[in-house]
Amino acid sequence: MRIASWNINSVRTRAHRAINLLQQHDIDVLCLQETKVADDKFPTEPFEEAGYHVSCFGLNQWNGVAIISREKPEEVWTSFPGQPGFAKDPEAEQSLEARAIGARIRGIEIWSLYVPNGREITDRHYAYKLQFLYQLARYAESRSNSKFLLTGDFNIAPRDTDVWDIEAFRGKTHVTEPERAAFQMLLEAGLTEVTRAHTLDKRYTYFDYKGFRFPKNEGMRIDFQLASATLADACTTADIDLTERAGDKTSDHCLLIADYDLPDFDSVR
């Protein structure tokens, strides 16, 4: 089973690119983040015409997540238990954002996640980010004995080597100890970061549009696939598609792919 994740940075702008990647890499499940579209405006038709099922959750032009799959999911969820909401005004209702969508496909529970950015350390969004991760870790722990996968844009660089220059990030989000501790909580909940070991030569999954970061190989590793023990043992290889990132008018994130050797899974072609 080939599972991929991509922060697409607007699905309406890049639907054709996503379909090309699905076909080029022979992907069974593609998890998208930052689709930036409400459900009623999601470009479902081209995906369906290409032979895929679309599960999406979007409320407006911000955030948004989706799971594109060869097979129709057995079940779909648009939030995980305990997922916090957010509003800039602390006195306003803290509404749920479109940051998580889960689907059960062939008995595997797969989540496409767009973890809050955090903005600035002094911003309320930073506390929201930590709370989001704490609740996610709590839920992951309850699912650790099943075939369970969290994938997407985590907006955290867990190690100093996951950014092109740690000194450029001092005092900023993505590399703070509380964020890294929250990421570690996911691993302590029984999950394994399966993609890193197979992609040490490529290192980064995100390159800012500004500053010519991609040609200078100045990026960040902030996209991951975290799998429960049963699923992690089945992961045979992973890859970061740098070719797509080098393309014109593409996303600032790279496609992240992992293969799982599951004896009971016959991919639908």
From TrEMBL:
Keyword set includes NAD: no
Annotated InterPro entries: AP_endonuc_1, AP_endonuclease_F1_CS, Endo/exonu/phosph_ase_sf, Endo/exonuclease/phosphatase, ExoIII-like
Cofactor stoichiometry and binding remark: Probably binds two magnesium or manganese ions per subunit.
Interaction with DNA substrate, annotated site positions: H253
Alphabetical UniProt keywords: Hydrolase, Magnesium, Manganese, Metal-binding
Domain Endonuclease/exonuclease/phosphatase: 4-253
Gene3D superfamilies: Endonuclease/exonuclease/phosphatase
EC numbers: 3.1.11.2
Keyword Thylakoid: no
Enzyme class: hydrolase
Site, as annotated: Important for catalytic activity: D223
Binding site for Mg(2+): N7, E34, D153, N155, D252, H253
Site entry (Transition state stabilizer), positions: N155
An example molecular function term from Gene Ontology annotations: double-stranded DNA 3'-5' DNA exonuclease activity
Active-site annotation: Y114, D153, H253
GO aspect biological process, one term: DNA repair
Cofactor(s), names only, from the UniProt record: Mn(2+); Mg(2+)
CDD domains: ExoIII-like_AP-endo (cd09086)
Family indicated by similarity: Belongs to the DNA repair enzymes AP/ExoA family.
Name of the protein this chain belongs to: Exodeoxyribonuclease III
Species: Corynebacterium camporealensis
Taxonomic lineage of the native organism: Bacteria, Bacillati, Actinomycetota, Actinomycetes, Mycobacteriales
